[in-house]
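Task: fold both queries, return tokens.
Query 1:
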Amino acid sequence: MARYVVATVDEIPPGGRKIVEVAGRSIGVFNIGGEFYALRNSCPHQGGALCEGRLSGLLLATVPGEYTYSRRGEILRCPWHGWEFDVKTGQSWFDPARTRVRSYPVQVAEGKELAESQGPQKGPYVAETYEVTVERQYVLVEIP
């Protein structure tokens, strides 16, 4: 599974999102309470730009007239027809048994870790080198 750097952590503040192109796919990366999630930017209903939709919460009622609003900012509504999806899982609230939007694993990695993991293999010759430090954290999306 290939990993792609899509942003620095500070580019997507809590409650924010960034829509990126990765491996020919449009993907929305969301920060919900400091955790990152990625969804394909295409509503399975009619292909609307799902990740451009409004984030809201979930309204539940145990008895008529008594409502509880929960999961604020975790439910994504398609801007075309209002179909709702759980940002954390991609599950639809309209038809949870059959409809979902593709979600992708997301990691946060230190810049130093990325530089070490993606560098070339060492060869027999060594040149003079200098210490380089990378101090930011990066958001990575995995695409199968």
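Query 1 returned. Query 2:
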Amino acid sequence: MTTSQQTVPPPQVWPAFRARDARALIRFLVDAFGFEETAVYGEGDRVDHAQLDWPEGGGVMLGSAREDPDDPWPARPGTAACYVVTADPDGLHTRARAAGAEIVRAPYTTDHGSRDVELRDPEGNLWQFGTYRGEPRRPR
């Protein structure tokens, strides 16, 4: 089977994190970065689970931070870092800047040829958007 005959499996790896104000962060990620809100479960200000899809493939999952000392997922808000592939990092930079995103690093070209931009959301998470799609998968 050649590489062109192989099908790419749907995303099975999802960055997941917690937020102090999950509903505000969801709005920001949709408005500033262009994620699509696919599912949000929870009541009032609390978000038990949210799935935001990236229009170019994949997505992220997030929920509200909890004060429970027995929390089985004690991820601290603001500590996530995600790399997201996009065909238009410059356009995303313009959109995110207009929406008030913190620009960590303006669009630049990496030494491996990717066009990238680095941003921070209001919770403090670091986002790098770029054209690097990773190396081709190895045949099995």
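Both queries returned. Flag for query 2: The chain has a mean pLDDT of 93.
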